[in-house]
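Collaborator request log, item 7. Partner lab (contact: R.S.) asked for a structural prediction of Rrf2 family transcriptional regulator to inform their binding assays.
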Amino acid sequence: MYLTQHTDYGLRVLIYAAINDDMLVNIGTIAETYGISKSHLMKVVTSLVKGGFLHSVRGKGGGLRLAAPPDCINIGAVVRHLEPMQLVECMGPNNECLITPSCRLTGILSGAIKSFFTYLDGFTLQDLLDKPTYDLLYEPKIPIVTKN
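Returned to partner:
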């Protein structure tokens, strides 16, 4: 099992916004920082805004900020919102598998997904923030001037 790039980028955006919580952040800067596609990131951000994880401020000087404090944003909830957890055909709406009525695979995989999310539910965005990540992602508003 793996998470899609969409979910990976979504978690990265939230980490970036959390670390730079003293200002509005913009998609271009986030894309440049991570070296990822701005157009793809726009789709991710739209989903995060719709899911209530980010707040978007439009207009000149606008940008993005977290919709809640980092300790209130649950990682399991973010992944549930972003990730289509259809591991096999029978878990989706277009199931045409012949053995579905007697197959036990769906139940087993559903249990695995439940365990996966139970684990993720034990973490918040705050748990992803540490000093090394802060040092890599923080964008100071005022340049630091050193005296010689």
